[in-house]
Amino acid sequence: MNIKINKYSGCNLNGHRLVFKTVCYKFEYEEDKRILDIILARGYDLAAKVNPATANYGDMNRLPERIKRNCVAGILAEYCWKHFINKRAKSEIVLETEFSGASKQIDLTTKNTNKKIEVRSSFPRNGIEFALFNHKFQFDVLGPYFNTVKPQEIQKDYYVRTLYPYDSKCIFQCINTSIEVFLTGGATWGMMFDPRISKIKNLIPDDEIIDHARKSMYKVVPLSLACDTISIVDMIIKEGIKGDIGL
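-> structure tokens emitted (247 positions)
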């Protein structure tokens, strides 16, 4: 497993030039087989839980492929965010949460202060720089959603983004050879309700794991207006340990 901080330069949606730092995790299956096999197993287990009709392992091949892909991508994204936050904090300050229903996205939480972190993934086939700075098709940090079935979801303290720069259909092929995972910034709850930087979008997220997914209205912050990865991680660490982050 190789970890690298990448810097991307461009103009945000307000025309201001900036440098956006991401963190890239690169896994080689031959070297990282133990970790990747665990992530695959956990992803398949999650897929079975969100699809109870095919929950028995003998029926795993009948699960919709999209759900399996999204669950595995989500588990891998969660692992990388947890690993990097704890590595940078030099302490285990972030833990995984238990699955409690198909409508609940993959989350992390800070151990001491119970701050909630939502992890969302997307697959920008045109690459990371495109996702960060293309003014027309720029990707977003996804925040809370609203719809007619579930008027409002539980508030999270932080929303973080993971990008896989290839078609989602390739994820299993990549995991079984070589895969790059980009931790690509985030936003706070307060940023989601700041009209200077947030928007409302009607969409179905790329990483939706519910079989009957429907469009919902989401609060979002475009990536070029969000915190970069190092900034949002340092915020989480500071809140998580309530003191000097010791970096």
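The chain has a mean pLDDT of 87.
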